Amino acid sequence: MSVNKSLKDASISNKQGQKLRHAPTERLWKENKIYLLPMMPTDLDEKEAYLEKEYRCLYCDQLYDDQTLECKICCRVAHIDCLFRRGHLDTPTVSQKTDWSCSDCCDLSKCLQDDEMRRIISNFDELDFRKNCYVKFDDYISVKRKLLEENGDEMTEEKYLEEERKFRHMDKSNFGSITWNEYLQYESASLIARKNKIELSNNLKTKELIKAKHLFLRFDNEKQLMINKEDSKKCYMEYIQNLRSKLGPVFVEHISQCIDMFGLNPLSDQKTK
């Protein structure tokens, strides 16, 4: 009986030892997950992307016509009037070349991991202690002050101004309060701006990869599917400048905190010659 018990204890001890030996390796693998860059779309991919375009409006389900916008990221389409009546456009008289993204593609939180999303939800719940589904600035700053005090810190004037600036960026409607969606988009943009570039590239849709391909090929003067470092800088800066003019302050606010692989600030006044 004692022999069997000893063998059982030894077996358990051995299994625990194996788990302990493998644990660091498993953790290291998870922390250093390998991401592969997407392949450059082929001409066939471009044709298939065109054929995948939907021909019925996302909102009214009526057929595509000359007063319809295509989502710049996915294959959805919507009538200009349908978008205007729902507040997605400021005017009903826009060109068909106007940049528009459907609500699904605008949702930056889709690029987040589950644990990142849970953390954002938890943080908003802490700010929204009144359970109004929105947070006013006084409540926002009081929670931030409390969190600093709990960590043995204090709300200095510099930190106050920084939190005030962040709140203004989140409060896109200028109502003096932030909604869950405004908070989610801001925090999502903040996390995304700090993510690994190759990891983020795996979230790109076919249409986005096609745009990146054509931008790349513009600088591939020798037609070798290769560009030098200087041209790569120009390509990158041109793309960021386009984002800057189209996406507004929320994304720009966060991407300005990042330094690209060449050590350039993408939002600096430096212009590509």
Number of helices: 12
Summarize model confidence as the mean pLDDT.
78
The low-pLDDT segments are 1-30, 257-264, 266-273
- Total beta strands: 4
Estimated radius of gyration: 25 Å
Task: Estimate the global geometry from the Cα principal axes.
Answer: globular
Tell me about the biggest sheet? Answer: 2 strands, antiparallel
Helix amount, in percent? Answer: 40-55%
Q: Helices and strands, in N-to-C order? A: HHEEHHHEHHEHHHHH
Structural class: mainly alpha
Strand % is under 5%
Concise overview:
By secondary structure, the chain is mostly helical. Helices cover 55% and strands 4% of the residues. The chain is built from twelve helices and four strands, in the order ααββαααβααβααααα.
Describe this structure in words.
The protein is mainly alpha-helical and 273 residues long. The protein has a two-stranded antiparallel ribbon with strand order 1-2. It has a two-stranded antiparallel sheet with strand order 3-4.
Indicate the topology.
Blueprint: H1 2-31, H2 43-51, E1 68-70, E2 77-79, H3 80-85, H4 103-106, H5 114-127, E3 134-136, H6 137-150, H7 157-170, E4 177-179, H8 180-193, H9 197-201, H10 206-219, H11 229-247, H12 249-255
Antiparallel strand pairs: 1-2, 3-4
Helix pairs in contact: 5-8, 6-7, 8-12, 10-11
